[in-house]
Amino acid sequence: MSNNTIQAYAAMQAGEKLVPYQFDAGELQPHQVEVKVEYCGLCHSDISVLNNEWRSTVYPVVAGHEIIGRIVALGSEAKGLQIGQRVGIGWTAESCQACDECIGGQQVLCTGGSVATIVGHAGGFADKVRAGWQWAIPLPENLDAESAGPLLCGGITVFDPLLKHKIQATHHVGVIGIGGLGHIAIKLLKAWGCEITAFSSNPDKTEELKAMGADHVVNSRDTEAVKAQKGKFDLLLSTVNVTLNWSAFIATLAPNGTLHFLGLTLEPVPVSVGSLIGGAKSVTGSPTGSPAALRQLLKFAARKKIAPQIELFPMSQLNEAIERLHSGQARYRIVLKADFAE
């Protein structure tokens, strides 16, 4: 077997189970690193790509974009990394490093050739994966490798808005939807020192969410309960992909407050301009985050001992793990442990 051969699990068509798959990755490019995969998180975005829900999938597709592993090869232009070093790779594998956004430190918004780790590129459901060296994020020594993978996507997705909106410990933040992203948001906000309200459609989670750090829990589908929060929130993070009473949620914002979308809500969001103008409120959204923000997140998580709550599956049971995620029973993030034969 060539050194460039990668063993993986791939979907050959939309809706099909993943099967073992080998391919030749070609020569390592000068700006790339090659990482031997140890762990890889399973995200709803992986399923969307596997099933071509976004109409961007190239088959066969190797998904997986919450990757933890060790560097086994370095391109000649890679900087600041070492063979054997443990790193993480998230949603983005490549950015052009030349457009205004990249030069300005916003590589996640690259307009000159950004490559997602699992769209037209082979991801982490494999024994090895490649990425531009800037996107191989060093893992702090005291960060648990087994549970760290979801920080590279779910974690940075909810962390980056805290930086963008200059959230401080004096702020009250609401989190809408407590699944893979939402539970990490609660853990981060607790360590940040904020007052936290969790909006969940499942009242049975109340005590569990309070144990995670939520100060208050509100039923997200109870319009009267939502309306009772009027004027409270400096920031609302929406992680859901369903339609809710968005007018009621906007009314819960404090002056200068923001409703920030992270989940891909399926229908247009009706917004009354008057509801924004009166309190200088805003509605925003964002993808993941830059390499700098990813580094900040991992250092913060290591210092505050923040770890996503995971269920561990061997990668050879990937199809069973996907079914578990589909069932809605995962608490709260599934991580796959690589078990390829050497």
From TrEMBL:
Under Gene Ontology molecular function, one entry of this record is: zinc ion binding
Q: Can the keyword NADP be found in this entry's annotation?
A: yes
Q: Which ranges does the record mark as transmembrane? A: none
Question: What Enzyme Commission number(s) appear in the record?
Answer: 1.1.1.2
Check the record and name the Pfam families matching this protein. Answer: ADH_N, ADH_zinc_N
Name its co-factor(s).
Zn(2+)
Is Glycosyltransferase among the key words of this record? Answer: no
- Enzyme class, top EC level, equals oxidoreductase
Q: Which UniProt keywords apply?
A: Metal-binding, NADP, Oxidoreductase, Zinc
Enoyl reductase (ER) domain location: 15-336
Q: Which family does it belong to?
A: Belongs to the zinc-containing alcohol dehydrogenase family.
What this protein is called in its record is: alcohol dehydrogenase (NADP(+))
**Upper classification of the organism:** Bacteria, Pseudomonadati, Pseudomonadota, Gammaproteobacteria, Moraxellales
